[in-house]
UniProtKB/TrEMBL annotation:
Name the record gives this protein: Xaa-Pro aminopeptidase
A Pfam family reported for this protein in Swiss-Prot or TrEMBL: AMP_N
Ranges that cross the membrane: none
Top-rank lineage group of the source organism: Eukaryota
InterPro entries noted in UniProt: Aminopep_P_N, Creatin/AminoP/Spt16_N, Creatinase/aminopeptidase-like, Kre9/Knh1-like_N, Pept_M24, X-Pro_dipept-like
Keyword ATP-binding applies: no
EC numbers for this chain: 3.4.11.9
Cofactor(s) demanded: Mn(2+)
């Protein structure tokens, strides 16, 4: 089990949240701030049983028994039931609240293996020695309490309650054979290889403390028990993500009580056309919803942890063209949210929950500022910051989506290897890659493919993909599919004719050594700047051996001459975006070696980063170095002239950082003999 140090520091195994009966704390128990709080539970005998549950989250709450009269004060822990032994120990931080009799209870949210969630509550207890205060609604809620019972259990495992507008979805439509247009249905991949995933079946594994640089994690181990599909059968963990973002916000000034409000991407039409533009969901919205529909809204109330999704109501005129859209009931079944309402209800909902609280929104992604007039404060910066930071550390579901994107992309990369020898143009190979991705479930690409032959490979983001292959030595393929809004980003360089020539093989071996040695440095807490610097050292050593560089390797490193051949950063965070958030690059860095490094600082466990060293022979970059006496003395132009047609070599894998090392999520072939064998076959 993996633990996370939240405001209350969890120090033991997970709890059960299903239909559970707590044995400790006892009703009206008297606890002390800073001391150990022992928790215990048993299966209550009410469905669902503990064995039917996958994962849990635990919160400390205070206040009344209805959702509007209590507050979640802190997240204690989260994990999977597989590691549970019916007990746990936590320590209560004194500043979280006041010492009011029977004000506190625990909220336990669990996700069933078959889908849906259950929320249980412990008996009430007191905590002496508390030094904080409660919000007004909590004080009022405590005043309504008699006895020691917490709120009633909420069982949503079989939730099928009709929502507003549901009746309209029952209108017969003889040509309608299924959900179309915006229904988010994913294809399944069948591979010869069995791809294994992290050791839990939970679709909601463990989530990070907002202070992501200092969290300790366990290992993500490979298991023979679970396939990718068994993990992805669960819901995208939107509520856990929302709670994680809220915890980050609560650590900021004035971040205690409010509402997170986000909007999905809008339907936009192609200019001078009646066709919609290709749709790409806003990643901030998706992270808190798992919903890929346009024209939606969501709210997350940090007071009670309630996540509400708003989807467009049915438009009868659109049905004949696009079929019936997703209904509220279907959306509630599909997405990890507490309620689904028509989007026409969003303004009334915001007014009802506003009070004198803060609403956190994202600048530039809000369509109607008037909706927030009922709130005491509107913050346009903190929600974006919180989501970007929280996205760095991935949970098991996100890691599994990345595995699947990699698995499908590997199939496509292999298909290109098989085709390249008989292809005549770059566009043919791009078509092969796209076809294999779409056929296996990646209908979207994470980015525009780079299919660069010969000297085109010296252009880092070459995208013409339309030149003939005749007479060229190598092909650089940088391409990755997107699955469930999560990206793969894979680069391979290989000989078009089936065998590297001498110069190409020499450069390839240098780059492969750069990648392998840098990858061996990876683990939680490693400074990415140091790994990047080591890549340059290896490049210098290799180019000195080939005679392209000459002189003292320390001087070459200090003068930054190697940047002429390796001008970009070693890698970047990967997630919903190819160049994912949270890396804190400094593109104004005066040091040319680090200016384009997209991640700075320490790598946390649970992050996914690309490792993509390269050596390039780009005249536009190298010629200024040849004209500068500071650098030209270290470059042998006579030797260099033999390598221009190599173009560029880049090798890129997607790597999961763990507490003691790493796991390479990319399995596409990269050993020379393996690639050449496939090409020649």
């Amino acid at each position: 089990m993996l633990m996370r140090p939240f405001a209350l520091l969890a120090a033991a195994a997970p709890f059960a949240f299903a239909d559970v009966k707590f044995t400790t704390p006892a009703p009206a128990a008297q606890l002390t701030a800073g001391s150990s709080l022992s928790l215990g539970w048993v299966d209550s005998g009410t469905a669902p049983s503990i064995s039917d549950l996958a994962s849990y989250q635990i919160f400390l709450c205070a206040g009344g028994n209805d959702a509007n009269s209590y507050a979640q004060l802190a997240q204690l822990a989260q994990g999977t039931f597989a590691a549970s032994n019916g007990k746990a120990s936590v320590s209560v931080q004194a500043s979280l609240g006041a010492s009011t009799t029977n004000a506190y209870f625990l909220k336990m949210v669990s996700v069933a293996t078959a889908g849906g969630s259950v929320t249980n509550y412990s008996p009430r207890f007191s905590v002496a020695g508390m030094t904080g205060t409660f919000p007004a609604n909590v004080v009022a809620g405590i005043g309504t309490i008699s006895g020691t019972a917490g709120p009633a259990t909420e069982n949503n495992v079989a939730q099928n309650q009709a929502a507003a507008q549901d009746d309209k979805y029952a209108v017969p439509y003889t040509l309608q054979t299924g959900l179309t247009n915006i229904a988010n249905v994913a294809d399944q991949l069948s591979l010869d290889r069995h791809y294994m995933v992290a050791e839990t079946k939970s679709s909601h594994n463990l989530y990070a403390n907002p202070n992501i640089q200092h969290v300790k994690y366990g290992e993500y181990r490979i298991s023979s028990m679970d396939s990718l599909e068994s993990v992805l059968a669960g819901k995208y963990p939107a509520k856990a993500h929302a709670a994680k973002v809220a915890a980050y916000i609560k650590n900021k000034p004035a971040g205690d009580d409010g509402v997170i409000y986000l909007e999905s991407q809008k339907t936009r039409m192609i200019e001078d056309n009646d066709e919609p533009q290709p749709f790409r969901q806003r990643r901030y919205f998706y992270y808190l919803s798992g919903c890929a529909l346009p024209d939606c809204y969501l709210t997350y109330d940090t007071r009670n942890g309630h996540l509400t999704l708003f989807i467009p109501p049915i438009d009868p005129e659109a049905v004949i063209w696009s079929g019936l859209p997703l209904s509220p009931a279907e959306a509630l079944q599909r997405y990890d949210v507490d309620a689904v309402q028509p989007s026409t209800e969003i303004d009334a909902h915001l007014t009802a929950i506003a009070g004198q609280r803060t609403v956190w929104v994202i600048q530039g992604q809000v369509s109607d500022h008037g909706s927030f007039l009922a709130f005491g404060n509107t913050d346009f910066t903190l929600a974006k910051e919180a989501i970007e930071e929280c996205r760095v550390v991935k949970d098991n579901y996100e890691i599994t989506l990345t595995r699947k994107a990699n698995a499908i992309s590997t199939v496509a990369h292999t298909a290109v290897l098989k085709k390249v020898k008989n292809a005549s143009n770059e566009r043919e190979l791009e078509a092969v890659f796209l076809e294999r991705c779409v056929a296996n479930g990646c209908r979207e690409q994470a980015y525009h493919s780079i299919v660069a032959s010969g000297r085109n490979a010296a252009t880092l983001h070459y995208q013409k993909n339309n030149e003939d292959l005749a007479g060229r030595w190598n092909l650089l393929l940088d391409a990755g599919g997107e699955y469930g809004c999560y990206a793969a980003d894979i680069t391979r360089t290989f000989p078009i004719g089936g065998k590297f020539n001498r110069e190409s093989r020499q450069i390839y071996d240098v780059v492969l050594r750069m990648q392998k040695e840098c990858m061996e440095m990876l683990k939680e807490g490693v400074v990415w700047d140091d790994v990047h610097a080591r890549a340059h050292e290896i490049a210098i050593e290799g180019l000195l051996e080939l005679g392209i560089l000459r002189g003292n390797k320390v001087e070459i490193f200090e003068k930054r001459t190697s940047v002429a051949f390796f001008p970009h950063g070693l890698g970047h965070y990967l997630g919903m975006d190819t160049h994912d958030t949270g890396g804190h690059p400094n593109y104004e860095d005066p040091d040319s070696m680090f200016r384009y490094l997209r991640v700075r600082g320490k790598l946390p466990a649970g992050s996914i980063i690309t490792v993509e060293p390269g050596v390039y022979f780009c005249r536009f970059i190298i010629d200024p170095y040849l004209k500068d006496a500071t650098h030209s003395k270290y470059i042998d132009e006579t030797v260099l002239n033999r390598y221009w047609d190599v173009g560029g070599v880049r090798i890129e894998d997607n790597v999961l950082i763990t507490a003691s090392g790493f796991e390479n999520l990319t399995t596409a072939l990269k050993e020379v003999e393996d690639m050449e064998k496939v090409i020649r076959s």
